[in-house]
Amino acid sequence: MRPDTMPAPQRPPGPVWNLRKAVPKLAFQIARLDPGSAAALRRGPLDGAGAAAFWKLTAELAPDLTPRQEPAWASVVQAVAILTPRGRDESRKSAHNPAVPFGRTLYAAGLSELRLARLLTAPPRMRRRLSVRLCRWLSASEQNRCDLVTLAHFIVFGGETGRRIARDYYRAEAAVRRRESEDRETDTDG
């Protein structure tokens, strides 16, 4: 085959779909934004003409984003912005903490099993809405730093990630029950 007739090599998906790399960078950059830009992202980056901060972040972290992929990416950006601490403090920490599983965070924050089930079984468009709503609820609690890569994968893809969230949620519940049982046994022994 002549080089000019060879098929073009397949390009890997854009960085938005490599969420393992993009989300920690996204969380770090949102934590460094000025309060006005961060607030615009929390309100919804695709409302109206969209927030300039959204398009800047997208150009850097997801340059190959297609219009069809924008709603899912916008939900990820909005969720991360909502969970990012507010204010002008330059030393603000990112909301991403890979050591804290997202499911465990939901359990620790007091999310009910019914609400978890609704979230995990929601179709894609509703899953995005419920995830953003859940992040608003989490931001009001002390449980707002967790593994945002898992959250992003869930918003974008659902499926296996939902099972991981459920597994971590119920493992956290089981650990609490074990500790309570051990504490009761210790109390009755004394």
Describe the structure.
- The chain is mostly helical.
- The chain contains nine helices and no strands.
- The chain has helices spanning 19-31, 35-43, 52-61, 70-83, 102-109, 113-121, 124-139, 148-157, 160-189.
- Helix 5 crosses helix 9.
- The longest helix has 30 residues, at 160-189.
Write the layout of secondary structure elements.
Blueprint: H1 19-31, H2 35-43, H3 52-61, H4 70-83, H5 102-109, H6 113-121, H7 124-139, H8 148-157, H9 160-189
Helix pairs in contact: 1-4, 1-8, 2-4, 4-7, 4-8, 5-9, 7-8, 8-9
Structural class: mainly alpha
Radius of gyration: 20 Å
pLDDT averaged residue by residue:
87
Q: How many DSSP E strands?
A: 0
Low-confidence stretches: 6-16
Count up the helices.
9
Shape, per Cα inertia axes: globular
Helix fraction by DSSP (H/I, runs of at least 4) = 55-70%
Oligomer: single chain
Largest sheet: none
Would you list the SSEs in sequence order as H and E?
A: HHHHHHHHH
Percent of sequence in beta strands = under 5%
Key features?
63% helix; 9 helices; globular; mainly alpha
Question: In a few lines, what is going on in this structure?
Answer:
With 190 residues, the protein is mainly alpha-helical. Helix content is 63%, strand content 0%. Helix 2 (35-43) packs across helix 4 (70-83) and helix 8 crosses helix 9.
